[in-house]
Design a protein that fits this description.
The chain is of the alpha+beta class. The protein is built from 5 helices and 6 strands. Strands 1, 2, 5 and 6 form a 4-stranded antiparallel beta sheet that branches. The mean pLDDT is about 85.
Amino acid sequence: MQNEDVYQEVAMPIIESALTVFNDTIFVYGQTSSGKTFTMMGDRSSPGIIPLAVKNIFRLIEKTPDREYLIRASYMEIYNENISDILVGRDARGRSLNIREDISGTVYVADLSEECSNCEEQLLEIVKRGEKNRQIVTTNMNERSSRSHTIFRLLRY
């Protein structure tokens, strides 16, 4: 199954509902070297779920000109039980971020940056910057493993 097939079958209905529903999640899980990062990111010839979703989101927004959207993105990494904001770069990361809960019960990561985007290209640049800042190490399973968990979050208002 190709990335486009996975996107069409699994992710696209979730992405389309995300413009009308409060919360949707796409969760990719598997053993080291099983293709999770490729499924999510892809490459030039086979874009993954995130680039396809970004493209689809802005296509759907264009189809609803009577409504305004604000798209905000954050990107965090959980590595060795520490949460880092991978949009701010390695030099600025320093300390681990904390999970908090506000008085209404909403769980959030304190001090996690969010960046606004008004086009596909800008949002994809945010993704690329986050990917560049991930922790990468060599393992017995492969030469290039993130050894981390990432959460790419889009908020629409």
